[in-house]
Amino acid sequence: MNVIGSRPDGWWRNRHRAMATLVDRLEGWALRDGVDVTVVFERPPSPPIESTVVTVAHASSAAPNSADDEIVRLVTSDPHPEQLRVATSDRDLADRVRAAQATVFPAERLRDLIDPR
């Protein structure tokens, strides 16, 4: 949600549409630049958002910071966390990700990359 929330474009009026649009933009970027992308939501989108290009994941239970915990779990369980980049503007999550040897990419920069103004 850091990436979605990086622009005050009315995303809060239709959260599901904002999430689906994010996945759509990430798909375009992944295909264009040949990158593997995982997006982590706090809870499973309803209706589900599916992609053959982007891995759409969610926390095991919806709670404050649960998506952050899931991101850290994914980073720490990866055999090569130093090759991962996590897009976030959350300072605590950024610190946790760096401690796990991954790189942090500012959410606003990712949003500009996948959805130029």
Search tags:
two-stranded parallel sheet; 117 residues; globular; 4 helices; alpha/beta
Could you explain the architecture of this structure?
Helices cover 41% and strands 14% of the residues. By secondary structure, it is an alpha/beta fold. Helix 3 links the parallel strand 3 and strand 4 (103-105). The longest helix is centred in the first third of the chain and has 19 residues, at 15-33. The model has no long low-confidence stretch (mean pLDDT 93).
State mean pLDDT (0 to 100 scale).
93
β-strand number: 4
SS-based structural class? Answer: alpha/beta
| Total number of helices | 4
- Amount of beta strand: 5-15%
What series of H and E elements makes up the topology?
Answer: HEEHEHEH
Strand order of the largest sheet: 1-2
Low-pLDDT runs? none
For the record, give the distance between the C-alpha atoms at the N and C termini, rounded to a whole number.
18 Å
* Largest beta-sheet details: 2 strands, parallel
Structural shape: globular
If you compute it from the alpha carbons, what radius of gyration comes out, rounded to the nearest whole angstrom? 13 Å
**Helical amount:** 40-55%
